[in-house]
Amino acid sequence: MSSFDSILSRLDDRLDGALDHLKALIAIPSISTDPDYAGACRQAAEWLRQDLEEIGFRASVRETPGHPMVVAHHDGPGPDAPHALFYGHYDVQPVDPLDEWDADPFESEIIERNGRNIVTGRGAADDKGQLMTFVEACRAMIAETGTLPCRVTILFEGEEESGSPSLLPFIEANKDELKADFALVCDTNMWDADTPAISGGLRGLVGEEVTIHAADRDLHSGYYGGAAANPLTVLSRILGDLHDETGRVTIPNFYDGVNETPDAIKASWQKLERSAEGFLKEIGLSEPFGEEGRSIMELTWARPTAEVNGIVGGYTGEGFKTVIPAKATAKVSFRLVHDQDPAAIRKNFRAFVEERLPKDCTAEFHEHGGSPAVQLPYESGLLTKAKQALTEEWGVEAPIIGMGGSIPIVGTFQTELGMDSLLVGFGLADDRIHSPNEKYELKSFHKGMRSWARILTALGQKAGESA
Amino acid sequence: MSSFDSILSRLDDRLDGALDHLKALIAIPSISTDPDYAGACRQAAEWLRQDLEEIGFRASVRETPGHPMVVAHHDGPGPDAPHALFYGHYDVQPVDPLDEWDADPFESEIIERNGRNIVTGRGAADDKGQLMTFVEACRAMIAETGTLPCRVTILFEGEEESGSPSLLPFIEANKDELKADFALVCDTNMWDADTPAISGGLRGLVGEEVTIHAADRDLHSGYYGGAAANPLTVLSRILGDLHDETGRVTIPNFYDGVNETPDAIKASWQKLERSAEGFLKEIGLSEPFGEEGRSIMELTWARPTAEVNGIVGGYTGEGFKTVIPAKATAKVSFRLVHDQDPAAIRKNFRAFVEERLPKDCTAEFHEHGGSPAVQLPYESGLLTKAKQALTEEWGVEAPIIGMGGSIPIVGTFQTELGMDSLLVGFGLADDRIHSPNEKYELKSFHKGMRSWARILTALGQKAGESA
Fold it and tell me: Which keywords fit this entry according to its UniProt record (chains A, B) (predicted)?
């Protein structure tokens, strides 16, 4: 048995041990957006540092103004070997509404649901399960061969779900340490449960919170209704105005920097369309809600959006209260594509709101992160090798697809460290990330580990070598 | 000193004792809309029953499917005397946001604020302070004369702030007991701190809660944004569509039954306009928000409204969560005037929402009470006597004004018991009812008691008698 085959065998034989590691990590409730869980975030970072040291990395927990980073290094076969920077995030989304979970979100289990074996729990997919596929691949490779096929630096952050406020300053301050030949990111989806995929494009994100203020107190709608400005009404009008009748966003200059996707790419996506039909059906919907005349894949991969993510104002408890509130708040996010400028989008959105304010109303804005979209070249050595490795593991060709979600780090790697990123992940659309009952496929975890062993081996080879 | 003068003297001399009664009632947190306070509502009812018995009424706490009623009777000078039914409500609004109160909302104090002596606390004005002006007047009259000038029935309910679900069935089931010659209601405002007022018109109310449902779970706005229906966006569009650019409500047939106010009445209101300027200024606003081209008094007294009282959906906690929620909810209320039909308004609103639902979205409606508007004849014996009594007490003529808020009971008294209602109250627009730091003017409480002694005496007199 070659050392490569022995790595794969080891990953098969020790799957239970790998799952125990993942369950231990899920058990730490590292919700980054809620200050009550700051201690848990640190605990998750410490857990990862210790685990990486046990594997053979030089690992450290690094302070930031927010939640800490984990940085680890392995020299691989030597200084001439290709150098990979692997990125993941150990923080997770809040778990509310808790009563919609079938089981404790932090007590992960391996169960069968709908005929599939799954790993349950908050972060099972996003991103603890995904990042552990890479960690477990490294553990097996070092155990079997004494080293890794590449030099490897690992960067785990703890603020990805809350806008990554510390990430850019940290990378800027540690450029020399973090710079590598390319980045590997495992925070994306497969095409379907049997077909791996490589993500060639990622949407960017602008997060905004806007509060409309009117009277200096909550008012009785009987005494004042009809005469006093109602911030809920004003907010509704503004948010209801964000799209025109064809689903296009109406903010001026919103589409500046949005490119039409090449026909060849659209055609390749069209071949995938049949599976995409299920995309909406499996969440109880039947037809696209966005811009008219575009496929679901184009809408979610190559078109920008304006989405309301939360509204609160007035009386929202049980029963009824006839109040005109003093203020109303909305959280709004924009998914960006291609060359859209996050700063311009934010500025134009704020102007859009200001222009629609009646007299007596003011708007207060709060920024929640921003990152441009990333569009990788459809052909590159990195993609070619990874595509080959994935095809060998899964037995089907891996398409190069788009990604609806944002992974801000990928843009940062491009602009700050001059690195392309290889986006390979094993999530599925029905993993319910950010929702109750998040899960990760056991198959994704198992073959994900094997895939990384193959990819890292392929990337470590010089031209003409073979495993 | 006549017995009538001795009543007024007693009310002056024993003001502190009257305030102690009021403080004890405010101390009971009878929030009707919140099930956690059901016990406190019952406690308030029991407190009133006991107090009324001590005064000399035959009083009882009466069960309903919700919070109990208090019913009390006094035979006055005999079976031929005019018979008054006095109505008030012992329940209060919720106190959130609690951190905006300067002091405990249930620990009432008599303090000076902005040069005025006030009674603080939730319910100080709405309606505990107001109803106690009548109770204290009765206490003094019975103590001084051994009886009351009229036969008096008292009805206190505990669900006024949550739509009065039990009131109509209770009145229907107890018509013979509750029927009187006329009703007295003390839940309205003075024109200003020095000028009492009689309310000739009251707006009705329709309360609706609507929840828009889309996908069967919360969604990640990255994966699904641009393709999946967003209930917050749908809700915003619908609520933003409720008014046209001139501030008119756009629901079909909404203005059916709305009459133009007679020019003579508008002219009398116009004379009051100067004080009305302060109406908006004192809440930090400067110009009317509603229908164009109408005075503030007309907007709040004689025009209907559609107001959003609460919206909640998506992520509303600290930080940001890029979610497309499965649902979004709004509480919406309509103030009605003249002959608008509450059932038609509700039906037309629901149709308005349904018509605007995109495919894949459904709307779930929940009813929160409904009552028609009341418009009393501008001239009647009841009004004339009360106006005279108020003028004597306050030394200025009491105008007959409109009322923006709803007092559903008044319509019920008309339809079920065939009684007109005399609406006299001593609240002020800046009493902050339904808001933090609710208060009642000490002067309102004191002169309110004296006013009821005068009014009840005037109403008990046959033509030609004098006190």
Answer: Hydrolase, Metal-binding, Protease
- DSSP-derived letter for residue B356 is T
Q: Which CATH class is domain B3-202+374-460?
A: alpha beta
**Local confidence band at A435 (pLDDT 50, 70, 90 cut-offs):** very high
B226, closest residue in chain A (CA to CA): A290
Residue contact A242–B233, C-beta within 8 A: yes
Comparing alpha-carbon positions, the chain B residue that sits nearest to A231 is: B308
CA distance B29 to chain A (A): 16
- Which chain B residues contact residue A285 at CB under 8 A? 214-215, 228-229, 360
| Residue-level pLDDT at A467 | 44
In CATH terms, the fold of domain A204-259+289-371 is Alpha-Beta Plaits (3.30.70)
Out of A33, A322, A433, closest to residue B309 by CB: A322
Count Cβ atoms within 10 A of the Cβ of residue A157 and give its class: 0-12 exposed, 13-18 middle, 19 or more buried: buried
Tokens of B13: 């001399």
Residue type, A244: D
Assigned CATH class of B204-263+292-371: alpha beta
CATH topology agreement for domains B3-202+374-460 and B204-263+292-371:
no
| B424 close contact with A: CB closer than 8 A | no
pLDDT in tens, A244-271: 999 999 999 999 999 998 887 788 788 7
Which stretch of A377-386, B147-156, B431-440, B457-466 has the lowest confidence by average pLDDT? B457-466
Q: Write out chain A residues lying below 8 Å of B220, CB-based.
A: 405, 433-435
pLDDT in tens, A297-341: 899 999 999 999 999 999 999 998 899 999 999 999 999 998 999
The pLDDT of residue A390: 96
Residue A191: both structure tokens together: 């095409």
Chain B hits for A309, Cβ within 8 Å: 221, 232, 314-315, 320-325
Contacts of A289 (CB under 8 A, 6+ apart): A247, B226, B227, B228, B229, B230, B358, B360
- The full set of domain ranges for chain A reads 3-202+374-460, 204-259+289-371
User: Crossing angle, helix A231-240 and helix B231-240, to 10 degrees?
Assistant: 110
Residues B269-293 pLDDT 10s: 887 766 667 889 989 999 888 899 9
User: Which pLDDT score, from 0 to 100, does residue A383 have?
Assistant: 85
Residue A466 has pLDDT above 60, yes or no: no
Burial, B15: exposed, middle or buried (Cβ in 10 Å; 0-12, 13-18, 19+)?
A: middle
CB pairs under 8 A between A and B: 356
Whether residue A420 contacts residue A182, with contact meaning beta carbons closer than 8 Å, is answered with yes
CA angle B267–B272–B274, rounded 5-degree value: 120
Residue whose entry in the numeric block shows the structure tokens 């009878």? B30
* Contact criterion met (CB < 8 Å) for A285 and B432: no
Nearest to A88 by CA among A158, A189, A162, A164: A158
Cβ neighbours around A363 below 10 Å, total: 17
Within a 10 A sphere around the Cβ of B342, how many other Cβ atoms? Answer: 20
- Alpha-carbon distance B34 to B316, whole Å? 21
Q: Cis before residue A231, ω within 30 degrees of 0?
A: no
> Given CB atoms, is B299 within the 8 Å cutoff of chain A?
yes
What pLDDT does A393 receive? Answer: 97
Task: Looking at the complex, report in whole angstroms how far the Cα of residue A356 sits from the nearest Cα belonging to chain B.
Answer: 12
* A 38-67 residues inside an 8 A Cβ radius of B: none
Residue in chain B closest to A373 (alpha carbons) equals B222
Specify the 3-state DSSP secondary structure of B463: coil
Q: Exposed, middle or buried, A61 (CB in 10 Å: 0-12/13-18/19+)? A: middle
- Judged by CB atoms closer than 8 Å, whether chains meet at A309 and B279 is answered as no
**Mean of the pLDDT values across residues A280-302?**
90
